[in-house]
């Protein structure tokens, strides 16, 4: 047997396996999980136990039952064992969620992996060195593993502030925001996590530069990339949210910051200002890849770009529609623009196979929204310009009762509209809420929007959330701030 | 009412805590995709929980879980191949690993893992169980449902093929 090949194989396995950690487990309890429970014994995947004598044979044609762990209602047949299974699964999920990663034990036949710092790759640390919270509790990955169960913590109330050590990480999810604000006085920027009811957790207020503002929240929820301009340079600073620690600071020259890659945000995308070419950099600023500026059969690539959930593909815009690329830049397919469009770009994933596409049909502003299947085929028009909406609509969000449409915003003439049953009507905003507000995001039925306090914006800015169904509003942040919604789409 | 209880000497939570990460790592090496690997391992533990009262001890539990994970990984890969064949009409979709995770490996490791992906499924599975999970021939044979002789020959052929692809000298 080739000893050298064996050694290389083991080393590659170790390096790959080290990327797999239990960090996500604490987040899994905040996300919906569906348990697939096979309604049959002895399927091909789940073998008979050797020597077991009362094993029941498979029932041909038995149905597979998909159950939602949050709603454990099942058929009466499942009732007898379902509750203990789900209860046990929930217990196991919580049990693992509070277990420190470094103490995970494998099957006993491998020695513990070396820490990331000893691996010969420029990998940013996924498992920061343990640090202490102000309370003195030792932490792992910067998150407290002490006696207090985050899952039981009550959300911090509206207008209240707490330290980052109080962040209930297993509850951070849709409806939360990352924010940067200048608190005034000291001239320093403060970075916060803000919960859905407007309670905020201070990540840090010790950043040295007053002009830093949040640019992106990493898809794994753990880091923030801040951005500022110095002379003609753009400076990016990556912050670890659990500890407030600056991970990297680097200059990207005359480039625009496009955001993190997916699925975990181990790299970033930037656009060269000189020639509008997309580049991928490591989260420490190291160059990884330059994408082609033009593609045969498609032409010049436009922006923004949009990764799919796995990070294996990304969508880019252009004059001839949108294009699906592999993560190495090769063209997979062109999705041609609707007739008459001047330029199009991908706005967001509508579902796993459909992208919301925005196309401009004039040399000025006249936006139309389409739903474009990524596998190809004709796009379906969602909403566009009309006599009552001369600018059309540039973005849309689904909620339980319809689709929220956004046209020009801020101090422009566009308003927020609701598309329901094929009819577009203005969104009724409560008294005191500015119309034509810039939308920060929609999570479930809750819209979060900026209130500018006048045109142009005044120091009476605020961020307000509103339930689109009930109309109830909450002031999420009072003052001038930049907010990024939780990266769940 | 049927009550699921821990069999004597078998603490389910302990099995989960002790083995989930290593099984997840094994699944990632088998299916090359973290999200699918998590589903595979999750399904294995759900089935394990249903069947746990039939198992005699922790050793049998781990063997059972490995079989479940390996079988489920193979099914996932088969479904992926079918999906690619029927759903993607143009040139290869980006079926490589996600943009950021694989790129964080050194070029050396990327080369090895790329070569591993080129092996036939059975040879790749045997090498992962042998050189990552450190299983014996008998354990690999049980996990894959093949004979010990087949384990030996797949391991030998797989390594020989890897060595050729990687250009390693004997």
Textual characterization of the structure:
The complex is a heterodimer of chains A (489) and B (170). Chain A is mainly beta and 489 residues long. Chain A contains three helices and 34 strands. A five-stranded mixed beta sheet of chain A has the order 5-8-7-6-34, with no helix packed on it. In chain A, strand 10 (223-230) and strand 11 (233-240) form a beta hairpin. In chain A, 37% of the residues are buried. Chain B has 170 residues and is mostly helical. In chain B, helix 2 crosses helix 3 (58-87) and helix 6 packs across helix 8 (148-166). Chain B starts with 11 loop residues before the first helix and ends with a helix. The model of chain B is unreliable at 1-7 and 88-103 (pLDDT under 50). Classes of the chains: A mainly beta (489), B mainly alpha (170). At the A-B interface, helix 1, strand 1 and helix 3 of A face helix 1, helix 2, helix 3, helix 4 and helix 5 of B.
Low-confidence blocks of residues of chain A: 23-152
Helix content of chain B: over 70%
Structural class of chain B: mainly alpha
User: What gap, in angstroms, lies between the N and C termini of chain A?
Assistant: 48 Å
How many helices of chain B? The count is: 8
Largest sheet of chain B: none
Helix count of chain A?
3
The interface involving the most residues is between: A-B, 79 and 79 residues
Order of helices and strands of chain B: HHHHHHHH
Brief overview:
By secondary structure, chain A is mainly beta. In chain A, 9% of the residues lie in helices and 37% in strands.
Name its key features.
heterodimer; A: 489 residues; mainly beta; five-stranded mixed β-sheet; five-stranded antiparallel β-sheet; 34 strands; 37% strand; globular; B: 170 residues; mainly alpha; disordered N terminus
